[in-house]
Inverse folding.
C-alpha cells in the first residue's frame, strides 16, 4: 500500500491504459482515422519518436492512476461502482472536455477530438473500475 493506495491496482490500471491505447489507436480500430484526422502518415512516425511518446504515456498514465486512486480514497468512492463512476466523471468531465476545448482553439477536426476524448474517457473509466475492484 502506498498512502492507502494499492500499488498493484495502480500498475494494473496503468497497464490497462496501454492495452486500451494499443487497441484504440491500432490500425484495426481507430488508428487509420486518427492518423488521417491528425494529418499524419505512417512514414511521418519515426520509431524513436514513437518510443519516447510511449514512455511519456506510461509515466503520465501511472501518475493519473495514482491520482485517481487517491481521489477515490479521499472521496470514499473506493469500491467497484464508485471507482467506475468517479473514473467516468474524471475521464469525461475533466480529460475529455479539456481536450475538446483545446482542440477547438487549435482548429483540429472534431473527429480527432472525439477519438482522443473517447480514449481518455474510457481509460479513466476502466482505471476507476480496476482501482475500485482492488480496493
Amino acid at each position: 500500500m502506498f498512502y492507502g493506495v494499492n500499488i498493484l491496482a495502480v500498475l494494473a490500471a496503468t497497464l490497462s491504459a496501454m492495452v486500451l491505447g494499443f487497441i484504440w489507436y491500432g490500425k484495426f480500430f481507430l488508428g487509420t482515422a486518427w492518423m488521417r484526422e491528425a494529418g499524419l502518415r505512417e512514414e511521418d512516425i519515426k520509431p524513436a519518436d514513437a518510443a519516447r511518446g510511449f514512455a511519456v504515456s506510461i509515466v503520465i498514465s501511472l501518475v493519473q492512476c495514482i491520482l485517481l486512486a487517491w481521489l477515490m480514497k479521499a472521496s470514499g468512492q473506493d469500491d467497484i461502482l464508485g471507482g467506475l463512476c468517479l473514473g467516468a466523471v474524471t475521464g469525461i468531465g475533466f480529460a475529455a472536455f479539456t481536450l475538446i476545448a483545446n482542440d477547438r482553439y487549435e482548429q483540429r477536426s472534431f473527429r480527432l477530438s472525439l477519438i482522443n476524448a473517447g480514449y481518455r474517457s474510457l481509460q479513466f473509466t476502466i482505471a476507476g473500475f480496476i482501482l475500485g475492484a482492488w480496493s
